[in-house]
Amino acid sequence: MQINRKFFFDQVRQHLFGSALAAPQVAGLTAILDMWQANHGADDERWLAYMFATAYHETDKKMQPIKEYGPTSYFDKRYGPPPVGQNPGLAKTLGNTQQGDGSRYAGRGFVQLTGRTNYTTWGTRLSLDLVGNPDLALDLTAALRILDYGMVHGSFTGKKLSQYFNPTTEDWTGARRIINGQDKAEIIAGYGKAFYAAISHVP
């Protein structure tokens, strides 16, 4: 079934974007809708709503792939290996082994892809040199594929959309584990419900 885009945009404009949508926001929302209708016509539309909610939160409502906010020094301290990095356990988990990896592989995209290991894995999956040119993760097509595949197949944390939204389960709060534990889970759950309320179908 075709999603009623006029209703969708009217609803999200009013309830999620302060009554106004900029052209880049419209373009990003449209790209996600197009991706969904091309690949997931028969799938649970709560998945789509939670994808929207995730992108809405992770891009600071811009609905375009962005780079994580912060200066180089912040990322190298937060994500990088010692001696500059202050969290060696996190650096190891992210695969950041070289000085500068923290800032080089800071978060990018619709889901804030982070760390040398993730850039290596996704570069292979997408046939892109994300290790050599991490800004390729900001390309709209690449960012859409990462958002879609990662959330549907559980490639980020091992958790996937079908575990939280299926015929017997609706867990808007728990679904945050697909991306990042329970960070801001309740807030993002609210976004997801608002996006879901905006989804209807052309008669």
Question: Would you mind describing this structure in some detail?
Answer:
The protein has helices spanning 5-15, 23-39, 45-58, 72-79, 88-94, 101-104, 116-126, 140-153, 161-164, 185-197, and strands at residues 66-67, 108-109, 165-166, 169-170. The protein is mainly α and 203 residues long. It folds into two domains: 5-65 and 140-197, no CATH class; 68-135, Endochitinase, domain 2, CATH 3.30.20.10. It has a two-stranded antiparallel sheet. Helix 3 (45-58) crosses helix 10 (185-197).
The coarse overall form would be globular
Low-confidence stretches: none
Following the backbone from N to C, one meets helices and strands in this order, namely: HHHEHHHEHHHEEH
| Rg calculated over all Cα atoms | 17 Å
How many H/I helical runs? 10
Find the structural class using helix and strand composition.
mainly alpha
Percent strand: under 5%
Can you count the beta strands? 4
Largest sheet: 2 strands, antiparallel
Straight-line N-to-C gap: 9 Å
Q: Tags for this entry?
A:
203 residues; mainly alpha; Endochitinase, domain 2; 2 domains; two-stranded antiparallel sheet; globular
Write a compact overview of the structure shown.
The chain is mainly alpha-helical and 203 residues long. It is built from ten helices and four strands, in the order αααβαααβαααββα.
